[in-house]
Amino acid sequence: MGALVPLTPPGWVDAGRQLLAGLELAVREVNDAGGIGGRPLELVVRDTAADPERAAAAVEELAGLGVAAVVGEYHSVVARAAAARADALGVPFLCSSAVLDALTEEPTEWVARLAPAQSHGWRRYAEFLLGAGHARIAVATQPSVYWAAGTAILRECFATRGGSVVVEIDVMGTTAEELCDTLVEEGATALLLLVGYPEPAAAIVRAVRGDRRLGEVLIGAPAGQPEFAGWAGALGEDGAGIPFLRYLPERLGPLGERVGKELRERLGEEPSFVAFEGWDSVTVLAEMLRSYGTDRAAVAGAWPRVEVEGTRGPIRFSRTPGIGVWQWVWAPVRVVDRDPADLTGRRFRIVHGEER
User: How far is the C-alpha of 151 from the C-alpha of 342, rounded, in Å?
Assistant: First the structure.
C-alpha cells in the first residue's frame, strides 16, 4: 500500500506526523492479525512536502512498484494532483484528510475520501460565526484554490443570512500593521486565518492579539491550524480561544478510545483527528483487500460495498451531489478551540457541535 504524507516543509509537518502515526499503527494491527491473505501488509511512504507535482510523481512511482492502492495526504491541492494521477493510472486512492469538494475535475471510480467535504464543514463554521453574532468578517488569505473555495463558501453562507465577508486581505502584500488597520477600518468582528501554518498564521495572531484596538475581534481558523501541538507551543496563551473545525465526535466509542490510547503512546502527545483519519484509512482498505482481493479494479469496484467500523463511527461510501469521488457522509464535525482557562494549552472546548 502506498502512502502520501507531508513530512517536510512547506508541508504542515505536524499534520504529516499525526497522519503517518495513524497509518503505521493500523498497518501494524493488520499484520498482527495475519495480514492480507496470510501476507504482511507493507506501507510504502512518500513525502509530498505539500508539492502537487511531487505527489503526482509519487503516485506514478508507487503504481510502478505494484501497490494495490494509495492512501493518505493532508493538503487539498496536493491531494487533488494525486487523485488526478491515480485516476489516470487506474490506481485506487483513498484520501484520508483533504477536504476540497472538487478533488477531481470529473467523476471517477478510482478515488474515495474519508474527510468531510469543505462545503459541509465550512458551512457549519459559518453557522457558528453567525450564531455567535459575527455578521461582519474579514479573511486573511493567500493565493490557493483551497483558500479561494473556502472564501466562496463563507460568502454564500453569509449572504443568505444577512452577514458579509467585508474584506479579503492578501497577506502576501500586506504588513501585519496594515492588516490590523484594515480590520479597524472595516469594522470586522472576526478575522479568519485562511493562510499557511505555522507562518504566516502565527505572526498574524501575534499582531492582532497585540493590538489594543482589536481586543474584541474573534480570530478563527476553520482549516484546523490550532489542532496541532506545535500551535500551542509557538503561541502559548495567544493561541487559545481560536475556533477551528475538528472531525472528532464529542466522545469516542470503545474502538476510538482504544486506538486513541495507542496513538497517544506512539506520538508522545494527544492524537489529532488527522491521526484517526490515518488509522481509519488503512483499516478500510485492508478490509477491502481481504474481501475483494488485491487487483486494483476489484478494489476500486468495492467502494460502494465496503462497510467498516471506524474510530469515529461506521464508514460507508456513497455518491454525493457535486462531489466526483466516493465519499463517507459524514465524519463528525465540531467547532472547537483551545480552552483559554487551561494554561497547558492541551484542553479543547466544543463551541459548536453537530449531531450525525
Answer: 31
